[in-house]
Amino acid sequence: MNSLDLLTFARGPALTAALCICVFGILLRLFEIYSLGRKTDLAPGRTDSPGSGWKTVVSRSIPPQGMVQRDPVTYIAGYVFHIGLLFAIFFFAPHIELIRDVLGIGWPALPSPVIDALTVAAILALFVLLAHRLVNPVKKHISTPGDYLAWTLTLLPLLTGYLAYNHLLLEYTLMLALHILSAEALLILLPFTKLFHTISVFISRWYNGDMFGRRGVAS
Amino acid sequence: MAKRQAYPAGTVGEGLTRHGIRRRDFLKFCTTVAASLGLSPAIAATMASAIAAARRQSVIWLSFQECTGCTEAITRSHSPTLEHLIFDLISLDYHHTLQAASAEAAEHAREQAMKDNAGKYLVIVDGSIPMSNPGYSTIAGISNYDMLIATAKDAAAIIAVGTCATSGGLPKANPNPTGAVSVGDVIKNKPIINIPGCPPIPTVMTGVLAHFLTFGKIPELDALGRPKAYYGETIHDRCYRRPFYDQGKFAQSFDDEAARRGWCLFKLGCKGPVTYNACATTKWNDGVSFPIQSGHGCIGCSEANFWDAGGFYKALSMPLSPVQGSLGAAIAAGAAVGVTVTWFNRSKKGAARASHQKMTVDDLKREEK
Q: Which pLDDT belongs to residue B84?
């Protein structure tokens, strides 16, 4: 098997399988979370707080006052990583072509060097966060193997994408195949690891906001 | 006026003199070849004297399962440029399409060349070798496999020309009805230079020959046996449209405004990023153009198994085949299993609730003994 054969495998059966497992897993977990059910709230809402859930979706995406100063590494590196990753995934021309082919929708791309810079920022932020996780006693204590797995799964597509684009380490075709395969590994494990927050983050924020709203806590 | 150098009969120099080719023109040719191979221009003079003094290299050209496109390329593109002289640099002792002899006389020419130049002749092969049934492709009643084995036995080296010979090409494409294989799959004990392409660039074919004639050895090759001088970089990296890729400027169709402005053809399926060849620098037809310059994306013809690597008009980042059907099935399966799990959880809760026994304060009282 040469590099192009591996790329053909990555773009063919591997991609189909990864997408199917990802979609299957996401649906399964959403049903699972929903079917856990909640006890009927017999108490009347303490305040009339319409839209509390939606407000929390926004408010929890912004750092609470004083928290950036208190834990700058987690907040700043966290934002840099998430924004870099989001742009690298959704605004790189070849990625948009993939989405257009699968979902039939597309949008304009950003220039490749901009994506390249954001990718570097995201990779550096990931390493800063890993170092912080290992150095900070609290973070280290609450870290599980699942956290390190999620970190690796996220790093690999970014790193191989960067190496492929810049023609580093391995020849382009092989690195591109590895990049696609690493993204497929991410897709396959996304529903079954903490990476599921990609899907559940706004659902849980809405739920928390709504629940707190009913109990009289301002969002 | 400088005295013209006299070369012994049968040498390349003698052939050049006979055709009225001046040394200056020949040096120019050698400089071009040296440059295309990435060698110092200073080597041109050495190259010229080495080639001129050499006996014309005996070459046996074998054509198996092929379309003659490689021969078309090497002949047409070189005429009338100086490069057609390569046919005077070599003694082409056997070539179906180009030789005048036919039938037994043709086969005799091959056998004679093999006998006279044992251990020294070059074998050029275009086309793949059918292994399912030797009858799929024969020449003078000899199967391609037998002819390749017999001819390669005393060859100095083999040059596999075209993607069919280097990796099986179109005949090997799924479902490979003839069991086609490449030259490298059959011959294991001879140096093989792969010059893939469908067809390969003529200058690359002649350049590799010139290199062999000059240095008497094969050039530096990559993992697929291709000369690094020509296959060291991707089309994409040398493409004049590359800046548009970097700027995110793409043609959306073959005749839109972006295409007319010469923007990148990535979205139209160009395989330049994963294709190692010299098209973007050497170009075709005496440096006139190459496919991307004429408005069509690269199809990746110099890569092994490129016929099975997805549609020519699908962007490199797209899935090979439609995934919507499979995704629909995955959604249905996910929903079905999810509903089942929900039902199971709910019924478990319901059963727990039903079997719940209420306790009273009396039940909690400790029984006094």
A: 53
- The answer to whether the Cβ–Cβ distance between A176 and B267 falls below 8 Å is no
Chain B residues 253-312 with CB within 8 Å of chain A = 266-267, 273-274, 300, 303-306, 308-310
Q: Which of residues 159-188 of A touch B (CB under 8 A)?
A: 167, 172-173, 176
| CATH number reported for the structural domain that contains residue B299 in this entry | 4.10.480.10
Exposed, middle or buried by CB within 10 Å (0-12, 13-18, 19+), for B353?
Answer: exposed
pLDDT at A35: 78
Any B CB within 8 A of A59 CB: no
Cα gap B277→B242, rounded to integer Å: 15
The answer to whether residue B318 is domain-embedded is no
Q: Do A5 and B304 touch (CB under 8 A)?
A: yes
Task: Count Cβ atoms within 10 A of the Cβ of residue B65 and give its class: 0-12 exposed, 13-18 middle, 19 or more buried.
Answer: buried
Beta strand residue intervals within chain B, DSSP E: 57-63, 90-94, 122-126, 129-130, 138-139, 142-143, 157-161, 180-181, 192-195
B263: which chain A residues are within 8 Å (Cβ-Cβ)?
none
Say yes or no: A27 contacts chain B, CB-CB below 8 A: yes
The per-residue pLDDT for B1 is 41
Cβ of A109 within 8 Å of Cβ of B337? The answer is: no
The overall average pLDDT reported for chain A is 92
- Tell me whether residue B123 is in a domain: yes
Domain check: are B164 and B276 in the same one? no
Report residue B256: phi and psi, to 5°.
-85, 175
- The 10s digit of each residue's pLDDT in B17-74 is 877 778 888 788 788 777 777 777 778 788 777 777 777 788 999 999 999 999 888 8
Same domain for B215 and B246, yes or no, is no
What is the domain extent for residue B260? Answer: 235-308
Residues B250 and B172 in one domain: no
| Structural domains in chain B (count) | 2
Q: Lowest-confidence range among A151-160, A180-189, B113-122? A: B113-122
Cβ(B7)–Cβ(B189) under 8 Å? no
Sequence-ordered strand ranges (E) for chain A: none
- Retrieve residue B133's tokens: 């049934």
Query: What is the CATH number for B225?
Result: 3.40.50.700
Which of A3, A28, A34 lies closest to B334 in CB terms? A28
Same domain, B16 and B56: yes
Which residue stretches of chain B have pLDDT < 50? 1-2, 79-83, 85
What does the pLDDT average to over A175-185? 97
Q: What is the pLDDT of residue B4?
A: 54
Tokens at residue A129, please? 């966060």
For residue B102, count other CB atoms closer than 10 A to its CB. 10
CA nearest to A100 within chain B: B318
What's the confidence (pLDDT) of residue A185? 98
pTM over 0.90: no
